[in-house]
Each structure stands twice: as structure tokens, then as C-alpha cells.
Amino acid sequence: MRTDIEQDAETSQQRPEQGEEQGVSRRAFLGAAAVAGAGAALQAIAQTRTELERGRAGSSASDPGPENTVLLKANPDANLPPFTDRGNMHPIWYSFDLTQKRLQAGGWTHQVTSREISQSRELAGVNMRLTAGSFRELHWHLADEWAIMLTGRARISVMQPDGKMFLDDVGPGDLWYFPAGYPHSIQGLEGDGCEFLLVFDQGDFSEDDTFLLSEFLAHTPPEVVEKNTGWTRQEWDRLPQTALYIFEAALPGPLEEERRFLGKHLEEENRYTFRMGAMPPSFADAHGSVRIVDATNFSVARNIAAAMVSIQPGGIREMHWHPNASEWQYWIKGQGRMTVVGTEAKARTMDFRANDVGFVPAMAGHSIENTGTEELIFLEMFKASRYQDISLNQWMSRMPDSMAKAHLRLPLSTIRRAPQERVPILPR
Questions:
Q1: Within a 10 A sphere around the Cβ of 346, how many other Cβ atoms?
Q2: What whole-number distance in Å separates Cα of residue 189 and Cα of residue 169?
Q3: Would you please indicate which residues are annotated as catalytic (active-site) residues?
Q4: Of 64, 180, 254, 285, which sits with the fewest C-beta atoms within 10 Å of its C-beta?
Q5: In 3-state terms, the chain is what percent helix, strand and coil (to 5)?
Q6: Phi, psi at residue 160, to the nearest 5°?
């Protein structure tokens, strides 16, 4: 089969059309000039790119003044970006390790919200730790809460408007989901307690701005509380007068014992927990895996969809975008590099490590490469009921030949050498 280049060469050698003189016709001359001009333009672009790449590593990039070398080493692509980066993309990186912890007896919490990543208007994240027995006080809030256990074990409770309560114990890789307004609690279990990530479907969410059981009772007049509960004023005086928030407590009894206590009020139909770490991968090969959890397999998670992605060293999360929501990321293990390309040719490349947060604006094209020597694991989070993405390779494969050649300006044989189907994780 002849290649596109061979076909083009054969066409250029055909005899001139009738009415044109032998030798160099005006059409041929213009065609040759266009080819020469295009060639010169491509050569100039290649030269500019080479100069940019050399400048990035050469004397032009030197900085004899003060530098934060620790920060530069952790994120070299932020300071000296690839030559393909362009414009002001707004922040796509932050780290929980730059945020202040709210430390209390029994644990701590800190958060990354739209106050840190201004474009993240749909989702916010909270990282929390509870020691063994300690509670995150019974509370509720304006946003839905999605969570994943990072270490240890915890007992969670959530009560529905119909008066039924769901109780379960969760461990590493397990999820829970609490709808807005549903009162709930989290308690660390035996051992070293637990640590978990909470994601809320409200970009400006604040973990300090929640409805607490302690504050509801302390700031309702005692005579009203007496009419409501039958408790006396002396008993009201013994209630906590300030927020408990995170506090130490005794370890609970066996889960089944507490479930028996609830009897007919135990919720058994709706499941507010999900074993993400134990589920079969939605995609897996030698280069990595993807586990997708959304409302199709975790029915109570109506407003937040997620994917846990694993990439082996050198591998890449293929170039893609999400048509239905922005992407909020939490990096769990390893290190990688992400490039995001938006409108008006704005592009940004950043380096990420464990405990960092990434952000991709809705529909912006992006890719992620494992730049370390160990497995890379991170979460993709979306304010959506369904996980959706568009693969660049799959899209190009669906383009008819003429459409693909017209847009990409490459020989068809080169275009079709790219993967012809969606492959979420590609090798080095």
C-alpha cells in the first residue's frame, strides 16, 4: 500500500494540465512557493522551540539571587515550565501541607477550598485525623460529604429523615457518603485511630462552619430545651457550653451490639459505605488501573463521582477531558507531573506529590505522567452523579481520514499509529 507521502510525490510528477506550458507553470510555482514557505515556517518554529528548550537549561535560566531551593526541587516545572506552557492558567496546585491544622485533644483537621484554589467552586477537601476512640462530633452541614479512609479504622453513623440510622465500620480504601443535612458522626477505632479525606460539593465549604449538636443545645434557651426534652435547668447546665468538635472518648462496643440497640430503626436498605479498595478495577493492565465509583454503583452518592487512578513508573494517564464537571484531585502516593491546556492557548504544567491537591477546570484537556520510581496513586473527584471523560486518542480514531488529515497535517499512516481506542493508562 502506498503511503501518503508517496501519493503526494506521484501527484507532483503528473503532467501539467492542458493549456499550461511545459516546465514550471504558475500553479506549480505557487505550489512550490507555498511548500517552501511552509517549510521555512516549520523550520523557524522548530528553531524557536529548540532555543526555548536550551534557554530553560542554559545560562538564560540562571538565578544568582535568593531561591527557595527546597520548593524549586519539589516543583521544577512551576518555576521553569516546558516551552509549551503559556499564559495565566490560575492555580492548579496546592498542598494540604501548606494549610494550618486545627489541633484538638483527639485529632486535627485542615482543608483546601476555593480560598486556596480560586477556580475550585464546586468541590472542597478536608483532611482529618482522629485518635483511637475520639469523635468528630455529631453534626450536619450544607454540603454533601464524600469520604475515603486513608489509614486505620473508624465507625460512622448517619441518620435519615425517616428516623432510621445507618451504622458501619470502615477501613483503608473504604468510602462513605452523607447527604447534606443528614446528621452524622465519625469515631476512631482501636489501634492508631484513623485518617481520612472528606470532599464536599461546595467549593467555599469550611470545616469550621458546620451545625454542631453541642452548639444547638448550648444556644437554645434552657426553658425551650426543658419543654423539648424534659431536662431540668440543672441538667441543661451540665451540657457542653462550647463546641466539642473533635474530642476524646472511650472506644465503642462491637458494631453488632450497637446495631442490635437500634432494632427496627437500623437502616439496612440504603448503604452509605462502599468498599472501593476491594472492588474489581474498572480498567487494569500492566501499566496501571482505574476504579470508578459514582451513582451507578454507589447509589447514595448522587452529587459526587470519583475515580482512583494507579500509574506505574513512566506511565501516563492519557490525554483527555471531562465534559460534565471540573476535576478536583487528591494525590495519595508517589509523584507525577500534570499538564492542563485551556482556552486561548493557556497551558500550565505542575509537579505533584502525596498530600497535594490538583485542579482541572471543566472541559480542559490534561494528562498526568508518573515521574517517580514507585506506583503513583491519586483520586479524581467530580461534582456529578456520573463519571465521564473524552479520550483524545479515541476521538482522533473516529475522525474520517480526510477530516483527520485536514486538522492534524500529518500523513494518515502516522495518524493511525496512535492508539485507536480509549486506553486510560499508557506505558512510557
A1: 16
A2: 9
A3: 380
A4: 64
A5: 25, 30, 45
A6: -85, 160
**CB within 8 Å of 342: residues ≥ 6 apart:** 89, 361, 364, 365
Alpha helices in 58-146 (DSSP H): 69-74, 76-79
Which CATH code fits 97-275? 2.60.120.10
pLDDT recorded at residue 54: 52
β-pairing, 335-341 vs 283-285, is unpaired
Residue 386's identity, in one-letter code, is R
Q: Are 109 and 246 in contact (CB under 8 A)?
A: yes
pLDDT at position 242 over 60: yes
Q: What number of CA atoms fall less than 13 Å from residue 327's CA on the CB side?
A: 28
Sign of CA pseudo-dihedral 387, 392, 393, 398: positive
CA dihedral 228, 231, 232, 237 (to 10 degrees): -100
- Cβ neighbors of 313 (< 8 A, separation 6 or more) are 370, 372, 373, 374, 375, 376, 428
Look at the block and give the residue holding cell 477537601. 125
86 phi and psi angles, rounded to 5 deg: -160, 140
Which residues of the chain form CATH 2.60.120.10?
Answer: 97-275, 283-426
Tens-digit pLDDT profile for residues 183-229: 999 999 999 999 999 999 999 999 999 999 999 999 999 999 999 99
Nearest to 359 by CA among 373, 385, 379: 379
Quote the CA–CA distance of 339 and 79 in Å, as a whole number. Answer: 14
State the DSSP H helix or E strand holding residue 404, giving kind and residue range, or none if neither: helix 401-408
Closest CA to 381 of 200, 178, 115, 181: 200
C-alpha cell at 189: 477505632
Say which CATH architecture domain 283-426 belongs to: Sandwich (2.60)
Q: How confident is the model at residue 15 (pLDDT cuts 50, 70, 90)?
A: very low
Kindly state the cell numbers that stand for 204. 467555599
Residue where the block lists cell 501519493 = 7
Concatenate the DSSP letters of all residues of 238-263 into one string: TS-SS--SEE--PPP--HHHHHHHHG
